[in-house]
């Protein structure tokens, strides 16, 4: 037995299809538009400031130079340092650094008391933190959905990575560095 469909039913069906297509398009755009809601750049209640204004800026710039010396290929590296995030609970500060040439985001904690010694040279073991734990590889560590991240401490969602990259490039500070020759006294330089 076939069912006859009248003009009003066709109109309702067309409206329902249009509404579902609109909803699908909105949901596809929502992660980018709402990236700051569930997993954005700034935790709730945190304040933002420019990295060059932070008292730890000289040590941050020195550390980033050492990371480029340790991990970067020869040539120029442009790092996009996001705004400093200061949490209200304990006043701790951190930055996220987008490194396009390495396809990575670095996570760097800052010293709230300022830079003690910008000339301090980190050992290879200390720089290893930025090769592994405090680094998000954009080719390996990014997943499309929160379900794919599934509580991982090293995976992030595409929406989060996009929000961080957008923040770093639009509102952060650009720092251009060249890899210096590796120091011969660093025994680990050849194994990197």
Describe the structure.
This protein is of the alpha+beta class and 192 residues long. It contains five helices and nine strands; from the N terminus they run H-E-H-E-E-E-E-H-E-E-H-E-H-E. It has helices at 7-33, 57-71, 124-127, 146-149, 158-171; strands at 47-49, 76-81, 84-86, 93-99, 104-110, 135-137, 142-143, 156-157, 173-178. Strands 1, 2, 3, 4, 5, 6 and 9 form a seven-stranded antiparallel β-sheet that branches. Strands 7-8 form a two-stranded parallel ribbon. The longest helix is centred in the N-terminal third of the chain and has 27 residues, at 7-33. The chain is globular.
Number of helices: 5
Oligomer: single chain
User: What structural class is derived from the secondary structure elements?
Assistant: alpha+beta
**Rg over alpha carbons:** 23 Å
- Spans of 5+ residues with little confidence (pLDDT < 50)? 9-38
Q: How are helices and strands ordered from N to C? A: HEHEEEEHEEHEHE
State the helical fraction: 25-40%
Dominant shape = globular
The average pLDDT is: 79
The proportion of residues in beta strands is 15-25%
Cα-to-Cα separation, first versus last residue: 74 Å
**Major β-sheet profile:** 7 strands, antiparallel
According to DSSP, the number of beta strands is 9
